[in-house]
Amino acid sequence: MSTLERTPLQEQRHGLAITAFTFTLWGLVPVYWHLLKAVPSQQIIAHRIIWSTVLVVAWLLLSNGTGWWKQIAAQPRALPTLALSSLAIAFNWGLYIWAINAGHVIETSLGYFINPLVSVVLGVVVLKERLRGLQWLAVACAALGVAWLTINAGTPPWIALGLACSFGLYGLLRKMISVDPVAGLGIESLYLFLPAIGFALWSEAGHGGGFFGGWGWRNDLLLILGGAVTALPLIGFAYGVKRIPLSLVGILQYIAPSLGLLLGVFFFREPFDGAKAVGFAAIWTGLLLFIGDSVWRSREPARA
User: Fold this and answer.
1) How far apart are CA 246 and CA 157, in angstroms?
2) How far apart are CA 23 and CA 37, in angstroms?
3) pLDDT tens-digit readout, 118-152
4) Is the overall model pTM greater than 0.90, yes or no?
5) pLDDT of residue 119
6) Which residue among 1, 19, 70, 79 sits deepest, i.e. has the most Cβ atoms within 10 Å of its Cβ?
7) DSSP per residue, 55-112
8) How large is the C-alpha radius of gyration of the chain?
9) Is 57 exposed, middle or buried (0-12, 13-18, 19+ CB in 10 A)?
10) Following DSSP, what letter does each residue of the chain receive, concatenated?
11) pLDDT tens-digit profile of 49-106?
C-alpha cells in the first residue's frame, strides 16, 4: 500500500486520538477549576474569558490573518447570532465553574449527559426536525430519569438543566449559521472580552477581588493558564472533528461527563445513592437508544 493510500486512514486515526484526548481533558477539568476554589466564581469566569480570548484570537491571526473575521462579517446574520451565542456560553461557563466549586460535580456531569437529548428537543421545537420512534423513546427515558431525580430530591436538578439547556441553546444558535468553530469562538470571545476585563479592573479597584495579586501568585498563574485550558481543547476538537465521522464524535462526547461522574463520586466524595443511580440509569438508557439509532442511521447509506 502506498503512502498516499495510507494517508486518509492515518488522518482518521490522528483525528480520533486528538478528539478522544480533548474529551478526556474536558472530563478532568473539574479538578483544575477546583484548584481555584479560593477565587470567586465570577472572577474565574472573567479571567477565563480574558485569557482564552488572547489565545484564540492570536491563533486565528497567526493562522489566517484577518480572513476569519472577513468571512464571518460577510454573513449578515453571523455577528448578531454570535453575540447571542456568546451570552449562552458565558452563562454555561459561569454556572459550570460555580457548581464545581460549590460541590455539585455529579450534577454537572448529569447536565452534559442530558444535553444531547435537549438538543434533539430543540431541533424538533425550533427547527421542525422529525424524530424516529426510537429517538422519541430515548427522550422519554431521559425525561423519566429527570422526573425521578426531581421526586427523589424534592426539587428539579436545576444545575444540570441549566447546563444542558444553555449548551443546547448554544449549539442551536451555532447551527443556524455556517462559521468555522474556532473563528466563531474568536468572535464570541471578543464580544465578552471588554465586559470581562472591565469587571476584573473594577474588582482590582477594591470591589471584592483583584486582577492580579489578590489571591497569591499560584492562583494568578492558574487563572492565566485557565485560558489555555479553555482554548486549546476547543482548537483540538475543531481539528479532530473534521477527520472522523460525526457519529463517532457523538459517542466520544460521553467520555467527558463519564469522567466527571467518576470524579464526583471518587475524588470529590459527593453522595451517590441508589435513588440517584436509578435516575442516571434511565438517562443512560435514553442515551444508549439515541446512540444506537444514530449509529444505525449512519450505516444506512453504506448498506444501500
Assistant:
1) 29
2) 23
3) 877 888 888 787 777 787 888 888 889 888 988 88
4) no
5) 79
6) 19
7) HHHHHHHHHHTTHHHHHHHTSTTHHHHHHHHHHHHHHHHHHHHHHHHTT-HHHHHHHH
8) 20
9) buried
10) --HHHHHHHHHHHHHHHHHHHHHHHHHHHHHHHHTTTTS-HHHHHHHHHHHHHHHHHHHHHHHHTTHHHHHHHTSTTHHHHHHHHHHHHHHHHHHHHHHHHTT-HHHHHHHHHHHHHHHHHHHHHTS-----HHHHHHHHHHHHHHHHHHHHHSS--HHHHHHHHHHHHHHHHHHTS---HHHHHHHHHHHHHHHHHHHHHHHHTTSS--SSSSS-HHHHHHHHHHHHHHHHHHHHHHHHHTSS-HHHHHHHTTHHHHHHHHIIIIIS-----HHHHHHHHHHHHHHHHHHHHHHHHHHHHHH-
11) 999 999 999 989 998 898 999 999 998 899 999 999 999 999 999 999 999 999 999 9
What's the mean pLDDT in 235-242?
75
User: Which cell numbers hold the place of 262?
Assistant: 467518576
